[in-house]
Amino acid sequence: MKHQVWLIARRSVVRTFRQPGTWIPPLTFPLMLMAVNSNGLRAATHLPGFPTTSFLAFFLPFSFLQGALFASGIAGVDLARDIDTGFLNRLALTPVRGSALLIGQIGGAVGLGALQACVYLGVGLAFGVHIETGVAGAFVILLLAVLIATGWGTLGLWLALRTGSSEGVQSQFPLLFFATFISSMNLPRNLI
Amino acid sequence: MSRSDQGIEAVGLRRQFKDIEAVAGIDLRVLPGEIYGFLGPNGAGKSTTVHMLTTLLPPSGGRATVAGFDVAKQGSQVRASIGAALQEAALDPFLTGVEHLRLQASLHGIRGDERKRLIAQLLDRVGLTSAGTRKVRTYSGGMKRRLDLALALIHDPSILFLDEPTTGLDPQSRTALWDEVGRLAREEGVTVFLTTQYLEEADVLADRVGIIDHGRIVAEGTPAQLKAQIGKPTVEVVPESPDELERLRALLRRFGAETAARPGAFAVQLESHGTLPEVVRALDAENLHAAQINLHEPSLDDVFLAKTGRTLEGAEDE
Fold this sequence. Notes:
Chain A is mainly α. Chain A has eight helices and no strands. Chain A has one domain (2-14, 23-37, 55-184). Chain A starts with a helix and ends in an 11-residue tail after the last helix.
């Protein structure tokens, strides 16, 4: 089972990284938003009750979430395409287990999520974000980012299985994107 | 893997999609090592039947065994025994041919040197050795079909399902694929279940043909048996001089009953096969000069017309 997951995941990662158009925008857009917001909304840190003096430090987790959300679209769209082209049928005709097939399919999203997390964390550290818990804390942040990507990726797969079309998967993501903006990820809950 | 001594058997196989009965209870038997052509227009139920026989779709009724295993209850054993190249080559455009074969082999539990050897052998067999490291999106339609066939063969299956394998291929690629499928059956004893909408394909390749229309098998037999069921060959002669048409009519009537012919020609349905040389000799003996002699053997399209009241080409448009 583990070997089957690895085989499907490797294909998913290779496929994702061979399409720069699908991974460069999800990687760079949260960075741009981070640059704009950390300067434009810096004044928010003066509000009474704001948890930190650096808006960049506050905003960093939002980038993980947003990047993972974009990446999860890849998992969903790829699965929908595999259904549409019959590639999923090809895999289903091998002895591969159904669960291995689905877990492996989110490999590309998780791989991209891990890459994004490293980049965002590196950029944050380069621009003065301080991690109180040190290197161990940084690893936990990376682990959480991978888990977030896995969670969003699973949602992408569910949407693909429900709709069976890449358009159906893609159409759901603006809603989820909007939901992240109105969540407490974007502004401390006590200040909303 | 040793070849299965069991082929394919279906009894009352049925599949319903809401109000539509795509397959309406078919009975068929394909012998080991046989090429069975499943002929019918689009929407006749060919692909649905293949999906049920390959375990991708559960039947709504009836039963079927493939390589001796029940498609509804022994799915994994069926899948281990079969290879399938389904309609439209299902390939990942961003992977290379070798990567496809490696993935497929690994999922079948083939690893190491054995996998390498098989990949090289199959690429050579389907003529893709030099293109093996190229991404599939650079392949032509024919190359994709050949890779599809190689993928279906990677685990040495005893039964091969080919769902319209030559649709959209140029004549050269089509002939190459026919040669390979014929070789697999003759030399390696692979049982082939081939769906097609091309009469010529069924005629050239299949040992036996089943004609499906509206989810039911309307005729079954060898191509020769099916053609013999519905008629005899027709010979049509155009005399060099129109004045000789009456003499020609009198002569040809000796060989069979008159049938429809083009203006300026005369045609008869021959009483038996192989009488064309006698017709030619008779024309020569009577000093009747022919501008054209056309022999028309009954085709599978004639069979389809006789069994369904429509031509296969016409049925496509429905």
